[in-house]
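lol forgot to send this yesterday, sorry. struct tokens for the thing we talked abt
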């Protein structure tokens, strides 16, 4: 096999393959994306979203693997076909890109590490030039499954490596040290950390002025899965829609519930879950049009394993101020004293691990799409409060200036965000369903 292949290259996108003149090894990633978009007119204007992949190196093990910028000069002279895909961009932002970058076959059968650290199918750079060393590769593995290989300089910092690993599935090593400092050798396997996030103690209260029997059915999108619930009832797996569980309860005017299938008396229904690595089967729907004025509404799509928490939609709170802020906000949203106390005491240990936290409350409609709740007979009021938060390091505070200023606003503005009607939420003459929960957004 010769080191230089045909003067033409196959670009493959969806069900179409087109021959193009082979770019030389000096071609940049942006220039190659321009070639791709001019070859496939439907990609014009989406150059920044274009992903380029190959499966022709031994290190790929037949898996279509994203080509990084540093690897492009090595790849271009040697491959026959480049496969084109698009980043799955949506309203949730960055984490969607990380998941989408596990290209084409996110679930692979475990394999043994390669016996040779060099990509044996192609001649090494030293064989071609007589001066350069063979490419330096590390293999990134997630949960025991091979995902991709990364071509990188052995003198690169771990921070640089993390930038490339983040395109696959998260962060793993300390920023400032070099790969040599960790003793990482070419061809060595790097294990990925578990990137799941815990859904913390959502509890569901049912308040009715009269005794009544009700069915409470909770469903979860595939990006969430149940880890525990109480009272314990069967969890059904619905493919491809996710998990589903149902409680049958009898309410009492004092707020307690009798769960009929288990015979348990409880104050509320409780569940916890964790995120999965599932990728949405299709992009989120486009913004909808208001039927009243025809103006476009910005409707948020909440995907549990792609939570969006940033300077533009949160408040930054020092942890020594977080309890009064949360109590005031939860009260404004309509939570009664016991619920506010339970919420704060549950999350406080996690919050106090940080000096500052950024937090936000999801619009109820966005949370509802991720965890649909069906109560029969239909209640007069359904209030579902779900908080996202994350720690913010001292060195990063400058990136959260809008959040810091927003914290000084009256907490009443959260009512508009969530969509709560406090008057009805506290009206004891109504049949009310009230839920609170949250999730810590972790950075890997």
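and heres what i got for the seq, position by position
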């Amino acid at each position: 096999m010769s080191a230089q292949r045909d003067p033409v290259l196959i670009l493959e996108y969806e069900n179409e393959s087109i021959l193009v003149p082979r770019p030389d090894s000096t071609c940049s990633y942006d220039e190659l994306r321009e070639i791709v978009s001019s070859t496939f007119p439907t990609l014009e204007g989406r150059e920044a979203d274009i992903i380029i992949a190959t499966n022709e190196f031994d290190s790929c093990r037949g898996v279509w693997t994203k080509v990084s910028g540093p690897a492009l000069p090595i790849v271009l002279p040697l491959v026959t076909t480049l496969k084109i895909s698009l980043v799955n961009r949506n309203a949730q932002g960055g984490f969607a890109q990380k998941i989408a970058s596990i290209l084409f076959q996110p679930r692979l059968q475990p394999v043994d590490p390669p016996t040779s650290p060099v990509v044996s199918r192609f001649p090494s750079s030293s064989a071609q030039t007589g001066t350069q060393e063979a490419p330096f590769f590390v293999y990134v593995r997630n949960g025991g499954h091979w995902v991709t290989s990364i071509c990188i300089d052995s003198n690169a910092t771990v921070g640089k490596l993390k930038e490339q690993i983040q395109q696959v599935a998260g962060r793993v090593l300390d920023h400032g040290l070099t790969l040599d400092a960790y003793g990482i050798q070419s061809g060595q396997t790097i294990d990925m950390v578990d990137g799941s996030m815990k859904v913390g103690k959502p509890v569901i209260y049912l308040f009715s002025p009269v005794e009544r029997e009700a069915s409470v059915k909770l469903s979860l999108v595939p990006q969430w899965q149940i880890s525990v619930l109480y009272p314990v009832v069967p969890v059904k797996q619905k493919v491809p829609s996710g998990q589903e569980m149902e409680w049958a309860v009898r309410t009492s005017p004092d707020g307690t519930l009798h769960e009929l299938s288990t015979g348990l008396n409880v104050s509320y229904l409780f569940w916890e879950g964790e995120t999965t690595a599932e990728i949405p089967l299709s992009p989120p729907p486009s913004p909808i049009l208001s039927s009243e004025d025809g103006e476009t509404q910005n409707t948020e799509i909440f995907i549990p394993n792609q939570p969006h928490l940033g300077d533009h939609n949160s408040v930054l709170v020092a942890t020594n101020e977080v309890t009064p802020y949360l109590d005031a906000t939860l009260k404004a949203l309509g939570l009664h004293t016991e619920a506010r106390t339970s919420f704060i005491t549950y999350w406080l240990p996690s919050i106090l691990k940080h000096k500052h936290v950024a937090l936000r409350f999801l619009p109820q409609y966005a949370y509802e799409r991720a965890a649909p709740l069906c109560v029969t007979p239909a209640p007069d009021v359904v209030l579902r409060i779900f908080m996202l938060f994350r720690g913010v390091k001292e060195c990063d505070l400058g990136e959260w200036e809008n959040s810091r200023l927003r914290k000084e606003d009256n907490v009443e503005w959260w009512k508009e965000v969530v969509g709560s009607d406090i008057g009805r939420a506290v009206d004891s003459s109504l049949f009310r369903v009230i839920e609170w929960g949250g999730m810590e957004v972790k950075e890997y």
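Residues 89-132, 142-147, 168-175, 282-297 have pLDDT under 50 and may be disordered. anyway ping me if u want another try
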